[in-house]
User: Fold these one by one.
Assistant:
Number 1:
Amino acid sequence: GPQPSGSDGAAKSHGNAIAREVRRLVDAGLEPLTGVPMVKSRHLELPLDELPDRARLEETARRNDFNGENARRQLKIIDRDGALPAHVEYPVTTWTFGDDLAIVFLAGEVVVDYAVRLKRELDWSRLWINGWTDDVPSYIPSRRILDEGGYEAEFSQVYYELPARYAPEVEDLIVSTVKGLVTGAFAPRAALGPSPFHRHPMLDPERLARPPALSDAERSALEQRARAVMSDVRGGKTPVAAAALALALETAQNGFARIESNDGGVDSWFNYTGTKCLRPYVRQLERGATIAWSTATPKRVSGDRACFAFAAGVGYSSQPETEGFHLLIGDEVALEFDIVRAPARWTDEDETVELLYVPTWTSSDDSGGFFFLTLPTSRVTEGKPLRLGVRSRGEGSRRWFAVDYYTDAARIARETLRE
């Protein structure tokens, strides 16, 4: 879905953008294809993951919802065929016009990861990929989507009368089949470089560095939440001391400039204002998974302490609890912290490094707000950005940390948490 959306103006803007690109391509000149295409097809059997047994289906069938309805259908299949299907039939077709163009036809609602991967492992300049072709067996998730779970990986299967989610190997099976059908003539050329259109259009640094434009109602709600949080802080109802937060707000420099590395992903979720925006994140699915970023170039620091502010959030408290996260300064572990939905304070053993968190948006599972990292000035080099990071200490949980792209977080925090 194109963003932004939700208004006639947004729709017209996207339509005009498409029209301008079509005109640009046509005006640049098109290359003729000579001869008829070479057509190849292959039918795959996409394996399903662990199938439910009859007892489990009978239990689910008692429910009066989509899952219950699907379970009742699966029981009828067992009664009719003696067993549930262990795979899904899946057609893959390619048309190749000599070495000039390969068109790939993939069945089903294919997630974008397939286009991104195929245009990385084949020559993107001569590759045209189509979904929704020949058949619609289901959503076709990638390994990433299956790892993340959710709608495309799991619940959507009920609409296609399938008894289980796909096994993780379906992505490699489809990709290797496509590459085998188009042959080595479409191997990527090193001189071509990566495709220029796989950078998410919402990841424009200037766009992401700007706080969202809030409606009057949204701004009023944010101000009310911020006043309530600050009232609790001043009243001593939180581990965050009012004096410490006041000093952090006064002295904080901008603690985010750009992402340096990310073992997680980028997704849209609620930020400190309670509005959705794209945010890079890391989960506790795998021990050692890390997201790292650089701060703005530090200004001269007076005294023996320096403070950096960054907008961020944590969440999914209903997921299994793990050992939490490490906060990294450079490559060194500074302290341990975990997800919370109220103001919090963490320090290292010597209490020389302090991390304050003040959430201004919360839900039953998540929160978003501002982190303030205070550390000795001896760990800061004037004129050289600081490298910060967050690393998972646990595994098997989808608990997450996300940092926002706002490069002016110190100013935003002061304005948001003003007295």
Note: The longest strand covers residues 87-97.
Number 2:
Amino acid sequence: MELYLQFGYGMMEHSRHLIRNWGTGHVILSPRDLTREQMQRLGQEIIDVGGNILVDPQLYDPNSNHHRLRDHEYWPSNFNIDMLTGGPGLSELIRSLENLNTDSHATKFIIPGIYATRVDDDWLAIQDSIISESKAIVKDMPLLATVCLSSESIRFEEQIETIVNAAENWDVSGLYIVPEHPRTSYLVDDPMWLSNLMLLCSGIKLQRKTVIIGYANHQMLCLSAAKVDAISAGTWLNVRSFSTAKFQETDEEDISRRAKWYYSPSVLSEFKIPFLDIANSRGLLDSLKPDSSMESNYASILFSGAQPTTTSYSEQQSHRHYLQCLHQQCISSVKLSFDETVNANIEILNHAENLISELHRRGVRGQDRDFFNIIDVNRAALISLNEARGFILKRIW
């Protein structure tokens, strides 16, 4: 499984730096955060350092009032839902979006898709229409169908199965799945939501299609057991957890002023730096240090012997450390068999649970980014996947 960089506010230099260091990788460009000229320039720069480009059309809400989205040529100026069922308006949208993809040096074409409050005949008809029009127009790039789902629709297994059945008839190479988190949460505490997301992903993979998950975070490492090809994450929480609010006009540059966090991959938790002072005073700091396999030196200053809050650990280091560790975790998440992959996920959860219990006992907590209450959610989803699709996943692994 790969980590794709989900482009968000302030990510130009992060993207160039990380792709250059990795020597490969994918960046999903965001029209909301970039002008056409910036997309062209950054796309070429990413290609030049060994990366690949995709463009997220972000047509989740065609009535969005976000000025940077509406400034793009492809964005419908006088939107009517009927335009998505065929005709000149849809053709013009797809052709304009194809031009943007070409100018941005994209290697695959993400077909636009609207947010599904629920998966019903109306939504499926729009999906079919947009996919068919894209297939007729875009000839030079593999196609990925966007499936953007409300948190509520993901909770209903029959809606998940409806998508899996419909996708068999979509003439695309893969799906770009954008799942809304319940209650705009960062870490999802609903086991049914995660179980059904795994069912959706595995069902699509059984059709031999590519699956890319948009707007994800480290909780989605468990999707390796569904043989997902890539999860996508970025710096700020609004590119690690999907919400349609991101695409409305807001003062987003105020971005939750502005704590620095440290991600500990061994416990799947993030900590504000003052809690690392507590860990340091209790002799527990080294237990939060990343393993050398993470190949991340961005946070090494926190383990230099000084009290963590007195160091010059920066926001830039925080973001790059998170993405570097997640990149390495993605690479190592898929094993040689389905059983090995599930067992490796369970072992990670067990280790995290034991260590977090000790940290909590000694006063070290990740607050709303603490993974302790999420561990059983991921366990339950892995068990559900094994029971629902384990037999066939073992055979095709």
Note: The first helix runs from residue 12 to 22.
Number 3:
Amino acid sequence: MQRRAMVTADGVDRIPVEESSEKTDEVFRVIHFILGTRAQLIKTAPLMVECRKRMLPYRFIYLAQHKATIYEMLKAFGIRKPHIVLGDCGTDISKSSTLLGWMVRVLYQGLKHSRKLFPDGSDGIAVVHGDALPALLGAILARIAGLKVAHVEAGLRSFNYLHPFPEELIRVMLWKMGLVDIYFCPNEWALGNVKEYRGEKHNTLHNTLLDSLRLALNGSGSTVQELGIPEEKYALVSIHRFETISRQDKMEEVIDIIVRMSKRISVVFVLHPPTKVALESHGFLDRLSSEPRIHLRPRYKYHDFVNILYRSEFVVTDGGSNQEECYYLGHPCLLLRHATERIEGLGKNVIISKFDPVIIN
């Protein structure tokens, strides 16, 4: 590998880019995976693993919205470090007040160093994933550089721009702005939701999260003692969506549900960094800490989280990925949302609460 310019302590360039001296005689387009969150990495990891197995040339461009545990996840999945990192603020972007500055940094660095970002010019395909902001920013940068854009997990809709917000809006913007050339949809329903938009459409039959679960369940994880989970039966709680944690009244409603639930069963509450910040700012963290059957835990590595989920009695979450994980594992799931953009598990093992006390009880 030939390196240019500054290398930071973790061995990754923050512009310019790490360049590979490896060449291939195969006629392949270069695949540029543009990701920025944990969820995007988890669901795209199987694609990068498959590229490695097939010796397909690919580049990993990381828009550092999430920073914590990312490099541990790369090691767990057996994926090399990013070729280039944009928007690195040194920590997770967990507050809305820092989000705009991070977006400006990503776009500025991406446009300024476009030739280093995509050294082969327009001869390539950019792969973006899902509904987080890095998907929109990555698609914009790739489109300006003349690349085609493939959207993985395309076609999901809640048909309500406020639930989930801003994810529903981001997906529709990707399609309506004409940023996507290839749609990879996880089922026939999702495929139907993008028929009106130009470009190639493919039904992958399942989400790539199914492949991620396979890799996680077949990989090595921590022991029960290391995970710090109770010996008795427990429910797993994971709350992190902006529409939930940004409002004090909504967070208070969620906390009341969790406290009532802890009277019936022990609770393992996984604290995502933005969730912890919201709980502290709203004054709810002390209340949860005082409940003897609520076990507050920091965010786990993905392989460990899957282990904890698998061992739990049921899951309470506002996350779409958790909904899918529960569906593939056949695990009971209560979704603390008014609407979901996914159909997996609905009417089977997943219940949308709509914050109705009767449904929740």
Note: The chain has a mean pLDDT of 88.
